[in-house]
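Running this now, will post back.
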Amino acid sequence: MGETLKLGLLGLGTVGSGVPLILKEHQEKISQVTGMNISISKALVRDTKEKQTLANDYDFSLTTNYEELIQDEEIQIIVELIGKIEPARSYIIRALESGKHVVTANKDLLAQHGNELVEVARKNHCDLYYEASVAGGIPILRTIANSLAADNIHKVLGIINGTTNYMLTKMVSDQLTYEEALDQAQALGFAESDPTNDVDGIDAAYKMVILTQFAFGMNVSIKDIETSGIRGLALEDISMAQQLGYTLKLIGSSEVKEDSVSVEVAPVMVPNNHPLAAVRDEMNAVFVSSSGVGESMYYGPGAGAKPTATSVVSDIITIAKNIRLKTTGRLFNSYKSQTKLTKDEDIYSKYYFSIDVPDKPGQFLKLTQIVTESGVSFDQLIQQQSDGKRARIIVITHEMTKAQSKKVVEVISNVEEFKLLATYKVLE
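Update: finished.
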């Protein structure tokens, strides 16, 4: 093939190191698909000595000066894989303003500054693609933007954090406590030394911002997403969920109701016959409910060098095609609609409550009065074995509004002898 397309790579970490590997392993196919020879010209790193062997193996140069990539007129695409907000945001803006196209996997940056970056790309007639920012190796953004473009999506449910899904899997299968599961995840490299973004649901919330933009054309912000994670989740609730026919999963959900959207990240009781319940270990899955296709699920690895790098290279291939066809400057996601958040009074679900109460007469009656006065009725009511002093009561309600659930939580929390241990939405 004649024309050569040169890349500038920012970062040679786990994913960054996977990009030259994928380009080399699939070189012939990529050349046939794009009609171009795609190669990395230069990579920006903190320490050139540390990465010199990798650069030699794949025949590109290293630099610690970003301006060298910007000033190199032969470099047409900048691939940002350094993560975090800065200097990634400044680097991407500088690249776009210099007329270079950009591929990134930076979910944190896109969730918080995506609109700004898209506008800069549009003004400069450049491509900005970011398939790898959500669910690693699963091509979910391109699927929603292209394959489901003719469909009307109602709901998107995602297991989109591999760390927490691995931990929950081990809590179910091996009866590990939260602390034991976290230690194991850290030992295997699935969890960082500071796991806050994963276990508190923040990572999943960033991804739900992006998924909501693609599915519904609405720009929600992180502060619009009620977010809770799995920190301190009790093994007793994991076991009780199993006994009742459910599996606890950390779910990111985005659902439209008329002209509004509700977005949430939280542990959810998923029925064991639901496809999401079978997603184990560090795998990811996105479940889509729509008018045309109906129910569909997209499953695969949510992280890792080769899966994520494959998504990155797919974006590079898309831009290469656009360059050849002279169609660059189009938006990755062109679907836009007015952003409106659904009121709590219009969001319906069943709920699971786990409550610690004194082991004495009248507690069931007191709890029943609280729930009844909130306009809620029981679907299931279970008392676990008592230690003689305290007992654990499990409640699954009939369908209720999110506003009612918050009222029940408030009232139970104000009962001196009661201790609310857990509240989870129950997926139908």
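The chain is about 40% helix and 25% strand. More later if anyone needs it.
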